[in-house]
Amino acid sequence: QAPTPTQVIEAFEGVQGPIRTHRPSHPKGTCAAGFFEGTAEGARLSVSPTFGGQRIPTVIRFGVGGGPTAADTSRSTRSLSIRFQVPDGTPWDMANISVPIFGAPTPEALVEGLRVRRPDPATGRPNQEAINAFVAANPKTTLQGRLLAANAPPASWATTPYWGVSTFRFRGADGEVRPARWVFEPVAGTQRLSEEQTRSLPSDFLAEELRGRVAQGPAAFDMMLIFPQAGDDLNDPTAAWPDDRQRVSVGRLTVTEVAPGPGGACDRISFLALANAPGVEFSDDPTLRARPAPYALSQVKRTRPQ
Ligand code: HEM
């Protein structure tokens, strides 16, 4: 049975302590802004006004996975969250990460994985035997961590791809509904830190790097839809699709401004309006429907007056 929103938040809080000011996931981040322009292929593949071709203002948040003080040199996820402020429609949100897969196949596995890592009040430490037993019974929850450990961290928030991870259903101008995933490919190319940089860079280098970069000119990402072939798993966000799947460019995100310091327009919002029907609709991936309600609960907790 799927966990309730309260159970999801309690599971996060059990590991990280009560949510007071920060998001429980990707707590460290920097606000930015820019615009999105859909391509002709985007308008063909989705009836959502986001892909209509006009310039859509966006609220952007770049984040780092881990705790609120996670090092930018750590092998955790980086994130790119976007709110598309469609002028005559409802806003559409997405929260993308720098790996193509999630760390749990279902909301149940996410919550169980958090619960088992909760520190034991007697010892102050989680029960390692229980964690080992959980991991052995849920091997899919190790796949994302292994992928992250195998790759050096991005050299910039502007030089890594970001995947939406889950499969969505795109309703095209021809009325056809096509399952697809997406990735935001950096126009600057993919660049990772060298071993030496990983050791020498300060733990908060990403925000300054992005400010310096965008001061010279916008940073951009091409949004590519990725289409499955027979046998590709549509409902498991820990199941990667082979790299050779057909990709179509449906729009470009241009980052024109980076907040000068902490806070900004992205801070108090939650990127929870994940579907944008008609045009971009949920698949049966169970982690999609499980997200908006706990995101809202988290947002209430982290934005209420202390
Ligand atoms: C069962 C599935 C999931 C649950 C229960 C969950 C839960 C949460 C919660 C509670 C937050 C904090 C929201 C806020 O305070 O605004 C959050 C943030 C986030 N999640 Fe998830 N999540 C899930 C799946 C995913 C997946 C599949 C991805 C990858 C695409 C993802 C990426 C993120 C990112 C990037 C953030 C930070 C967003 C921001 O910049 O504000 N989550 N998640």
Automatic annotation (TrEMBL):
Enzyme class: oxidoreductase
PROSITE patterns linked to this entry: CATALASE_3 (PS51402)
InterPro entries assigned: Catalase, Catalase_core, Catalase_sf, Catalase_SrpA-type_pred
Origin superkingdom: Bacteria
Cofactor: heme
Keyword Oxidoreductase: yes
A Pfam entry, by short name: Catalase
CDD domains the UniProt entry points to: srpA_like
Domain Catalase core: 1-306
EC number: 1.11.1.-
Keyword annotations: Heme, Iron, Metal-binding, Oxidoreductase, Peroxidase, Signal
GO-annotated molecular function: peroxidase activity
Span list, region Disordered: 282-306
Family the UniProt entry places it in: Belongs to the catalase family.
Job description of the protein: Has an organic peroxide-dependent peroxidase activity.
PANTHER family referenced in this protein's UniProt entry, alphabetically: CATALASE
UniProt name for this protein: Catalase-related peroxidase
